[in-house]
Fold:
Amino acid sequence: MDTLDATALARVQFALNIGVHILFPSITIALSWLLFWFRLQYARSGAPHWLASYRLWTRVFALSFAMGVVTGIVMSFQFGTNWPNYMNRVGNIAGPLLAYEVLTAFFLEATFLGVMLFGMDRVPAWLHVAATLLVALGTTLSAFWILALNSWMQTPTGHEVVDGRLIAGDWWAVIFNPSFPYRFIHMLLASGLTVAFLVAGLSAWRLLHAPDDMPVRHTFRVGVLCAALLAPLQIVAGDLHGLNTLEHQPAKIAAIEALWQTQRGAPLVLFAVPNQRMRRNDFALELPRGASLILGHAPDAELKGLDAFAPDVPPVPLVFFAFRIMVGIGVLMLALSWCGALSLRGGRAPPRWLLWPFAGFTFSGWVAVLAGWIVTESGRQPWLVTGVLRTADAVGDAAEAQLGASLTGYVITYAVMLIAYIVVLTHLAAGGTAAAAPQPAPPAS
Amino acid sequence: MSLDLPLVFAALLGFALLAYVVLDGYDLGVGMLMLAATREEQALMVASIGPFWDANETWLVLGVGILLVAFPAAYGIVLGALYLPVAVMLIGLMFRGVAFEFRVQALGWHRELWNWLFWFGSLLAAFAQGAMLGRYITGFKPGFEFLLFSFVTAASLCGGYVLLGATWLVLKTRGTLRAKAIVWAGWGLAWVALGVLAVSVATPLVSGTVRLKWFDFPATLALMLLPAATLASGAAAVIALRRLRRGASQADWVPFACAVAIFMLAFAGLAYSLFPYVVIDRLTLWQAASHPSALRFVLAGAAVVVPLIVGYTAFVQRVFWGKVQSGLYEQH
Structure:
């Protein structure tokens, strides 16, 4: 019982940290490319509204990046403090991938961020554009390595077992494991959508206060069009990712569909309250043969149920509901962004009725990203590395008192940070691009 | 002859940790000095570290990353034993990092609150790092005398960071702030002298392994070069600060260079004392090393990338070379 409690605490603590952390990379990955585009447009046209957008959103970027850095540092330590046996068993694979992330990506973004934020008057324009580009490359490369490791934990390939420890037999197969390309693209698009709705949403807040702020009207348009472009792409990418999961992690799909028994002509469960203890669905609303048709492409295709994987069954209600939240937000994003794109066509001014839903959807990307990560991480349980290492076997011997005390500290810290972050963002939004204009520097003494 | 991979990675780990301690040391030190400055001076102090702090903290991630990659067994033992001080350090670093960004956006008492959190986070992180060092040197042994020892190392490291931060400000600022920083650097130096002395006396007392290493004639005679050089660096710093105070010299970089030299010498002494252990008395670096396949894969990348990182870090330092301009940070 003691180890179980320590495991639970270690998991809650790690989940909290990684859940807070992912919010910020999901902004910085795509926002860095948007900033590169703003900066490039300004370099080419010299039009001041590009510079105004660049300055405003650079502030949001700096803030998000700082939040990502500090929570990321915590993560690099918690691998060791919370999961020492994880590193013992698979450190020869996880370690190098994390090291490559730091070496090739983290330093690049963190160093050139300084030039990007403070160097505009100190370096030639081309170098400032290049610094912005290097930051964007860094964030994307960072996502590449982290998702390579995460995907390897989901669908491990390319490793050998020597003396009970895993070593890489073929690094190429480790990195480009079967689920990696799908997960990487799914995450990049998720970041794109998060930023598109953040940009459109904060701009909408500003336009509700000051409808004539032209640069903000312009950024609103950019946000809406990006969202309208990315939402359908994400739905296709998500579907392909799902089919890949069916092939390599069928237990996760069974949990998503709340399919308890292996059967032909499996129904699509639209809504239910999965009952893990009794292994059945309460209050189920089903579409007959739906799941077989979607996943097996035939009305009587056989689908594996959770009984085929017992006792290694993920927490079904969590995975089931998180998946429906993610998909639900995705569908709403598609509808809203297309409505927006249609009503803005031909350079029309944004109608007021459109601004409210976009303002409400400012942080919708965060909810979808968190729901998606819960699906994929909880859907892998009870494994930490599928078929190789169980989560319960990876936990260390940190005392419950230590875990509990530090957890309290982390919860308070994160609460303060998140509240401050959102307050500052809405404050920036209310001020619009005018708030980001440079203050006149006092004369040097 | 084949490469001794664990030794190469131990050197790389040392390099990353030294880079972290010196680089983040000066910005943690500036943070700890925040409350001693006026509002206008605080803006300048923050501006002096603004372009660098993100990258400076990255060295910590590299250090812990190399420990993880190269010495996974040690990584588990060290971070497991240092669970609480690590958590305290991380919380300190988090408050400091975000306070840094938030204080720019805030006005009135909000800004005062973030300034205070910036100071407190810096102090917390520095103190926790010093305590971790003390626990590490003594092999995480329980007992009052060992806790007392880590308290001494924690206080000393805080002093070291204050010295780095103050000399950094001498280098980066002008006028009254520079004059104040010269005074702070003097105090920092005294604090460091006391700290180095206390840690040097206490270390052989708490660790038999270190005692044997230190009093092993005739190697001891060569080893005496380290304290001698440390003393020389300290003396050079005192002279340089005195000349600067009298306005006799414009070499604002000298005190900072002396502070860095003191850190490097202390670090060399530590490395000599612990070698070949990664966890003292328990694990040598060869026992803790991970599989050669992992080490070779990382080394191939590191050989290309680390020189690049050093190169562009130097480039960015050059871009922002010279005295900081007021309100720089507020401009972006």
